[in-house]
Amino acid sequence: MRMIGNWRSAAAFRVRIALNLKGIPYEESFIDLDAGDQHKPAFRAINPQGAVPAVFDGDGPPLIESLAILDYLEETHPEPALLPREPRARARARSLAQVVACDTHPLYVPRVRTYLTDDLGLPREAMLGWLRHWIGSGLATLEARLTREPGTGRYCQGDAVSHADLCLVSLWVGTTIFSVDTAPYPTARRIAEDCLAQDAFARAHPLRQPGAPG
User: Fold this and answer.
1) pTM score, two decimals?
2) Does 212 reside within a domain?
3) Are residues 64 and 120 in the same domain?
4) Which end of the chain is more exposed for a tag (fewer CB within 10 A), N or C?
5) Which residues of 93-118 are buried (b: 16+ CB within 10 A; e: fewer)?
């Protein structure tokens, strides 16, 4: 299996974790988002949106969109399972994952940050305020659900790692990179730190990838 990603991409990070957890061999090549590699015709032919990751597995077009890739890996490599068997638990894990991947992460990706500063003329500090606001909003939603809903255990859903944890961790790492106050989110912190202590998560960490700042 082959993947195109970028060191700081939260979406590539969560896919990388799943590949590690499932023990799937893969090779990852990295494009430079700061240099605009995602806008070059060669990459736009792979993903017209110009976003990573893109996964190649056998014949057919590349797989794009991280949640779709996670579902594909779950269906083609079902063990170890990263979604619960029971339907309601499975739906809850997916909904927690979507709080991050669908409702929070899209609001602070590079193309949004660039549009705010370059096209709308927002000062950098105001753009960072936008970014911190939406990361905090996503974490506040997760914290409320994780503390109030009975499905929470050692992890977001019960006592086994699921897609929800992969997404939570991909958001949590951004709090350090972008200096987001995490004091209001102790449950999210507990789960994220538990996950990040595990080898499959640690090896996938953005700061351990080629191109990351030393």
Assistant:
1) 0.96
2) no
3) no
4) C
5) bbebbebbbeebbeebebebbeebbe
